[in-house]
């Protein structure tokens, strides 16, 4: 058996293999409500052969959505739509389904599809909030710094959204603590210039993400795994360091989190990300795994089955996640497992395209 195809326990949830589909914003929601597109997109990922599919960054408040077109989980209607989506997918796939809950902070109210520019009020935009009154970029609105009452409301919003995600039937919750969104901006000295108990020392900068993780852990049933996507680095001087990320991961483990998904960047436009290099974020996951002892997911330019297998077999990371490779080829996990000598189960209606039945498979995949 290949390492990539071996099961992984996250809490009591058994992932059938180590390949996850990374959360991907679809900018296709209406008032935060999932549309048939979401069922189609996540449904296709759920029959990809992956061991876990994580739904896109989903706002815990209206202002916490990345764009006016992002999913939200703060109304009954949004919860009902996601409940239907999970039930529809469950009717033909047992693949574990997770959801990423987030607050976009000072990067909220982006246009979405059309550009990375801020959405103005006439197209549904709003004033973002953040740790401090510093915009992500000069042409972005100045965020309103959160006061302690705002912070309490945001903790409660995460708890409420996690309860809704649980009721909707998701198997796992991931908190978005990366890419410069709210939790990431509190963690990063580049964005967080507060002088109260939420700014300054690492202990203070971690306070909000850890408060949220703890509150969500307590709200979710113990058998449902909880993870957080975090930055291994901000790719700028004075950003979060890999040592700090390791300390954060250890604190998350102590709270009862089951894994961290290690990404990077998004807190500063001065960043220089080596994002064209295959596996450019693997070393961050590996360092954090070693220093904290928590299970890790690594993501970013994981392109080849053998590359994925090597990452898992050398214990650089417990899991790998793919995003664009899965959009390009929604059966990437099945093809990868086949290339590594496994016989993944095809959904019955696709059975005739499997490697054991279809002679064309070898031609198409050249193996
Ligand atoms: C269309 C698209 C939407 C994305 N949306 C999210 C998101 O909602 N949450 C998140 O943490 N990352 C998001 N990402 C980042 C991916 O999850 C992933 O970390 C990144 O694309 C690198 O992986 P890849 O090289 O396999 O694409 C998105 C990426 C893409 C391409």
TrEMBL record:
<dbReference type="Pfam" id="PF00724">
    <property type="entry name" value="Oxidored_FMN"/>
</dbReference>
<feature type="domain" description="NADH:flavin oxidoreductase/NADH oxidase N-terminal">
    <location>
        <begin position="6"/>
        <end position="336"/>
    </location>
</feature>
<dbReference type="InterPro" id="IPR013785">
    <property type="entry name" value="Aldolase_TIM"/>
</dbReference>
<dbReference type="InterPro" id="IPR044152">
    <property type="entry name" value="YqjM-like"/>
</dbReference>
<keyword id="KW-0285">Flavoprotein</keyword>
<keyword id="KW-0521">NADP</keyword>
<keyword id="KW-0288">FMN</keyword>
<protein>
    <submittedName>
        <fullName>NADH:flavin oxidoreductase/NADH oxidase</fullName>
    </submittedName>
</protein>
<keyword id="KW-0560">Oxidoreductase</keyword>
<dbReference type="InterPro" id="IPR001155">
    <property type="entry name" value="OxRdtase_FMN_N"/>
</dbReference>
């Amino acid at each position: 058996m290949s390492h990539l195809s071996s099961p992984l326990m996250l809490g009591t949830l058994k992932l059938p293999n180590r390949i996850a589909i990374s959360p991907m914003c679809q900018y296709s929601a209406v008032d935060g409500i999932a549309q048939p597109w979401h069922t189609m997109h996540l449904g296709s990922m759920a029959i990809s052969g992956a061991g876990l599919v994580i739904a896109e960054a989903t706002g815990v408040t209206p202002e916490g959505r990345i764009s006016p077109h992002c999913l939200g989980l703060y109304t009954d209607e949004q919860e009902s739509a996601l409940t239907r989506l999970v039930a529809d997918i469950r009717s033909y796939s047992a693949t574990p389904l997770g959801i990423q809950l987030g607050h976009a902070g000072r990067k909220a109210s982006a246009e979405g599809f059309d550009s990375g520019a801020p959405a103005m009020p006439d197209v549904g935009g709003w004033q973002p909030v953040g740790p401090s009154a510093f915009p992500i970029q000069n042409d972005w609105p100045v965020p309103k710094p959160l006061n302690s009452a705002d912070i309490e409301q945001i903790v409660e919003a995460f708890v409420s959204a996690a309860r809704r995600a649980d009721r909707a039937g998701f198997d796992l919750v991931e908190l978005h603590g990366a890419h410069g969104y709210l939790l990431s901006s509190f963690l990063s000295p580049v964005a967080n210039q507060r002088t109260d108990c939420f700014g300054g020392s690492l202990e203070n900068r971690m306070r909000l993400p850890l408060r949220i993780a703890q509150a969500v852990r307590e709200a979710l049933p113990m058998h449902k795994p909880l993870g957080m996507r975090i930055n291994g680095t901000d790719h700028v001087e004075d950003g979060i360091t890999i040592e700090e990320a390791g300390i954060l991961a250890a604190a998350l483990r102590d709270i009862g989190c089951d894994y961290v998904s290690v990404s990077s960047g998004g807190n500063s436009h001065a960043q220089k990300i080596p994002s064209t290099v295959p596996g450019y974020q693997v070393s961050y996951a590996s360092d954090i795994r070693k220093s904290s002892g928590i299970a890790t997911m690594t993501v970013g330019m994981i392109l080849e089955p053998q590359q994925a297998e090597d990452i898992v077999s050398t214990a650089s990371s417990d899991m790998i996640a793919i995003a664009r490779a899965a959009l390009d080829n929604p059966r990437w996990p099945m093809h990868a497992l086949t290339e590594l000598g496994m016989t993944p189960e095809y959904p019955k209606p696709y059975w005739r395209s499997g490697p054991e039945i279809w002679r064309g498979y070898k031609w198409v995949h050249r193996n």
